[in-house]
Amino acid sequence: MNTKIRYGLSAAVLALIAVGAPAPDILDQFLDEKEGNHTTAYRDGSGIWTICRGATMVDGKPVIPGMKLSKEKCDQVNAIERD
């Protein structure tokens, strides 16, 4: 049976679990696969401006159309959202 279909998790996520990776690493991989990581602001399914993996605020300010962040800044924002 296809492992991804059976568990709903990718081989990458299952491999991280199998090797005992820290929970934040597993969650990051899972969320990157499910949510994506957008460095340019976009509207989510509800029409709300978001960026990175769905953040609506960056440094205390709302996400606005045209906002762009570096991958490194998105990593920071994602870590704050995750933790």
From TrEMBL:
Gene3D superfamilies on file: 1.10.530.40
Class of enzymatic activity (EC top level): hydrolase
GO annotation terms (biological process): cell wall macromolecule catabolic process; defense response to bacterium; killing of cells of another organism; peptidoglycan catabolic process
Catalytic activity, EC: 3.2.1.17
Keyword field: Antimicrobial, Bacteriolytic enzyme, Glycosidase, Hydrolase, Signal
Catalytic reaction equation(s): Hydrolysis of (1->4)-beta-linkages between N-acetylmuramic acid and N-acetyl-D-glucosamine residues in a peptidoglycan and between N-acetyl-D-glucosamine residues in chitodextrins
Residues making up the signal peptide according to the UniProt record: 1-23
InterPro entries noted in UniProt: Bacteriophage_GH24 (IPR051018), Glyco_hydro_24 (IPR002196), Lysozyme-like_dom_sf (IPR023346), Lysozyme_dom_sf (IPR023347)
Highest rank taxon of the organism: Bacteria
GO molecular function, one term: lysozyme activity
Similarity comment: family membership: Belongs to the glycosyl hydrolase 24 family.
Official protein name in the record: Lysozyme
